[in-house]
Every structure is written in structure tokens, then in C-alpha cells.
What does this fold into?
Amino acid sequence: MLRMWRVGVLSGLALAAAPAHAFIAYVSNEKSNTVSVIDTDSWAVTKTIKVGQRPRGIDFTRDGKFVMVAVGDDDTIQMIDAKTQTVVDSLPSGPDPELFAQDAAGKILYVANENDNTVTVIDLEKRARLGDIQVGVEPEGMTISPDGKTLINTSETTNMAHFIDTSSRQIVANVLVDARPRFAEFKHDASELWVSSEIGGTVSIIDPGKHEVTGKINFEIPGLRKEAIQPVGIGMTKDDKTAFIALGPANRIAVVDTATRKVTKYLLVGQRVWHMAFTPDEKYLLTTNGVSNDVSVIDVAAQKVIKTIQVGELPWGITIAP
Amino acid sequence: MIRWLVGLIGLGLAATGALAANPVMIGVGYLGVAGTRSTLSLVEQPAENDGVAGARLATEDNNTTGKFLNQRFALEERRIKEGEDAVQAATDLAARNGFIIADLPADALLKVADALRERGTLLFNAGAIDERLREADCRANVIHTAPTRAMLADALGQYLVWKQWKRWLLVVGSHDEDRLFADALRRTATRFGAKVVQERSFEDKGGARRTDSGVTLIQRQMPVFTQQAPAYDVLVAADESEVFGAYLPYRTWDPRPVAGSAGLVPRSWDAAQDQWGAIQMQNRFVKLNARRMTALDMQAWTAVRMIGEATSRTSSGDVKKVTDFIKGPDFSVAAFKGTKLTLRDWNLQLRQPILLVDGRMVVSVSPQEGFLHQVSELDTLGYDRPESKCKLK
It folds into this structure.
């Protein structure tokens, strides 16, 4: 009786200590050819899933049933069943898929194929290829405007953000940015498009209506040479007030006030920080750190790193269940 | 009347979109020497199109970008045969091309540079690694994408010192360029705290590089040649002429690694380089040229990409405008080396990381950690601003 009571108290305590919602994060490990599954309740890796070669871009389907992961060296995108946490299917992407974006309904997937200067359009329901769009050299960053009308693709050697009309699938504008644009992110209110330039070392802010660069964010970290600052992943809070920018080999996340476009803080994370994802309640931001083989957990409100989780080798992309 | 009509049509086209207008044409010439030289290793035998193949890929890359900017690039190749005049060939190329990528010996390059100075043609030295082209003989109309001997030697030396292989047995060939490379290696040793414990020279007595049973002979010669050396950590070979370097690994009297012209070699590029997105370019190169990419290919690719980068940033094909931008403070180019490449404004040498390769893998990339510099760590490789004898004119 006494023992039962004690067990009851203990489990009650454990429950009380846990956050209200536990989420599941999926991290692609580029070198290990695996995906690590992280439980945000225990902050522990609960499973490691074997996938194809060189997994990078990773995202949940809108219905939350599958995780899509681009396995570039196998020239395909694999579908992981979120229930069984196993690979169940693959999508007919073009060669060497890296990053992709899906429309709001979760029906159409746009994939950047680095090897042949195209964006491939895929019907997610039928899992069939609908067509290709010719873009610049080495397409990489992909995102869709909040109204769903414009697809953005960045090309790394052409150094442009291409604006593509999603209905006609034609390029309507090209905006030059600094060298090696890696990632593109809209503000939720669609007023600005942010594009990171890895080699240029800047983030360009583009007016999506005028197709013009209206400002640039520069980074300066005392004691660190400028070449080490290589912006890649961008995360924007839902209120659009704060942006987090991963600075690659600078091993830091820059916190940017979007109103003043100034860096307010640099958070030291793991080595070669690449991409990031918020938990749906926006309490935490998780970043992938390629060289230190770990994931940093940032308390968004406190703007502090609170945890580090070891994952596979060269963690690259991350997505969290909706 | 007709002209007026044409003008109207032109205006109409311009109004419907820039892409409909006549594209801006940008001509790039490639000037090289005909024929290839023999290497000791058959797998390292350069292809006939070594260098120009890289320029060709960069022209394709520039044209992919150019279609969004209404710019079109054309590449014209010219090879000088033995006895032909480089200046005449260059002048002929310059009549149609505002930019020339040159893979020429130092003396020929200088003659060409001086002959084309008044015309305003911008030259890119993609082939010659001679120090003097960036020092006493530097020219304001020549940009160097090829690294220098001192940059290559420093890149290797930093790694050897980091590895604590500080005692070098230096073996030098008997040709001028071998001696120049040896000079660079000695300078490196002094700068970074290594010591040349002994120097030996390897006389080129002629002879074929391809033989039927050469391996037996080499196996007897090389151990003998390297015996009775003082204690050393690494054998450093200066053999740009390809006479003996590649015969040394695994055949030294003492079991020691070989570096320099064989073994661990410093290069601007290698077919094994797959970091920093390079795999995409390696794939594009193999697809276009049906062979792997060499350092010379990369040096030519970078030159043509520099032109493309400047024409897209200035949205102009005007040679003067493009030249000013490339020489200006805002210029940089991405070339799959993990960092942006910029020009040393005092001698127009492209700053670049140097790969250390063994023929199969990239072993390391210099500058090495800990070699610090107040401006750019890339300036720990080669002659720095305060040492420079260059006066650009």
C-alpha cells in the first residue's frame, strides 16, 4: 500500500514537472545517413531512423502524418511515417534534392535540385512529378509567400532570389543578393522577404512587391574574423518582431530586432550552426550544429541556450511535428 | 523612316521586358600554349583542354545567370604553337574580346600585358605561379587567379609545422622552376620555424618518362639517393619539372613521408575536393567535359566567374566599368573554398585557401588554425603587403 502510494506520488511529480506539451523533432544527419528523433519533454533522442544517402532538407507534411527528407545522393525525397517512424515511400524529385517547400494546402511540393539548375514540382497526393522550372546555377533556398502566390528560390552561384508565380510557374522577377544565398524566409505578414548569403556574410531584406533589396543585416562579432560569419538558417517569430539567424562556423545565433534591423544579441551554440525550428508553442528554438554533432535548445523568451543534445554526424536540417 | 520604325519597335520590346531586348554581349578570350607536357604519373597527364575546360564551364554558369540579366557570354580559344608570336595572337583575340584569360609563361604574359595596355583589355593570369609577376614585374592590367609559389609553399609549410614535422630534407631539381620552388620552400621554413636539415639536388640527365620496366630501376635508385641523410621528419621535393618527385614516396631510405611536388601536394584545386558545395560544380564539370577538374581548370573557372560576378553586380558589359569593380573594395567571388575570395589590392593577386592533396583525398586546407593575421588569415599565405615590391602601373 505504502509502495503504491509512493509510486503514485512519484509519477504525479514527474507529470507536474513536464511541460504542458511535448513535441517531437526530427533532425537529418548529413554524414550518418540517419534521422534522429528528439522528444522535447525529456530532451532526449528516442529513435534513430536509417534513411538514404546524404539527408538534408526535412519537413513535416501539413497533416503531420509524414516527415519528408531529401536524400540528395539517392536523388529522391523519402517519406517517414510519423507513427511507425520508418521510411515508407519516396517521391520522384529531380537529381540531388536539397531543400523544398510545400504549398499551404500541402498538395504541391517544390524541390530545389542543385545538380541541374531546376526546381521540380511534385503532386504530393499522387506522388507524381508535374514539371520543372529552370532557375539559376545551384538552386538551394525555397519558400512560399504567405498568400501562396509566389515561390521563392535562391541560386547559390547565380546569387539571386528568383520570384516564381505559382500558378503560371514562370519567373516574374530576379533579385541579386550577396554571394551564395542559402535560405529564404518571409515575414508572416508578407511585408518582407529575408535571404541569407553564406559567403557574402549578410542577410538581404527584400520588398516582395517592388522586388528590391531595402536593407542588409551585417554581423560583427569581436574576436572573430569576418570570413567565419556565414549566415544560413533564419527563424522568424510569429509576431514578426524577432528573427534568429544561424551564422555557421561563427558558432552563434544572431538575435535580430526586425524593426531596427539590428542584432541585439549573439547566442553561443554548437559548431557550424546551420538550420533551426521553433516548437509550435514558440517556447523553444532548436538549432542543428554540424561540426559538434549536436542540437542546441534555445529558450526563446529568455534568449538563452538551455540544453545541448547529441545527435548523429553532421546534423543539417530540423522539423518539429505540428 | 525605317530607322525610326526600328527604334519604335526597339522601344516597344524594351517596354515589354528587358529580356526581349538585344542581349549585352561579353567576349572572353582564352590564350594558351598548344600541346601538353609529360608528367611522371600517367593519371596526372593533363588533357589537351586543361584550363579552357574550366573557362567553358564558367561561361555556361555565367550564361545561366546572364539569361536573367540579358547578358550573353562567349568564349574564344586560341592556342599558340611553337614559334608563334604571343603578342600577335593576343592582339587578334583582343579585337573581339575585352577580357583574356591567359595560361602563358611569365615572359610571354608580360609582353602581352604591355602590348594590350593602351587598348584597356583586362588580362587574367590563370597559369603562371611566378612570384615576380606579382612583385617587381606586376602589371595593373593583369589579375592573378593562379596562386604563387610562395602561397603554395606557405600552405604546405603551415601544415607540416602544425603536424610537428619541422625537420625537412629538401630535394631540388635542376631546372629553373624547381629552384624557384625551392627558394619559396626555404622562405616558408624560415617564416614558420621549420628547418631544412640538408639539401640535395637531383640532376635531370634526360630520359623517358614512360618505359617498359622502369619501376625496377627506380626502386633501386631512390633508396640509394636518399640514404645517409641527417635525422629528418619529412622529405620535401621541389620538382615542378616532373623529373623525380613522384618516384620518392615509399622509396626513401628512411621511412618518411614525402611532400611538395609529390606525396602531399599544395594546389588551388583538386578533383577530390567535395566540401562547401563543391560537389555540384565537380558534377557539372564532369558532365560537360567527360573528365575530372584540375587546378588549372579551377583557376580559369574562377577568372571567368569573376567577370560574370562583376557584370551582374554592375549590370554592365563595359570593360572599364567591370575592371574598376573587380579592382574595387566591394568585389568578392565565391569559389567553393568555404570563404569569399578577394583581391590583394596592392598586386591584384586573388586571396585563396590552398588545398593539400595526396592524389585521392583532400588531406587539409590552409591557412591552418593558429596562423593569425590582422587583415585576413589568407594573407598568411605568400608575400604580404609590407613585403611587396609591386608598384601597379
Q: What stands out?
A: Chain B touches chain A through 22 residues (CB under 8 Å). Chain B has ten helices and 16 strands. The longest helix of chain B spans residues 295-314.
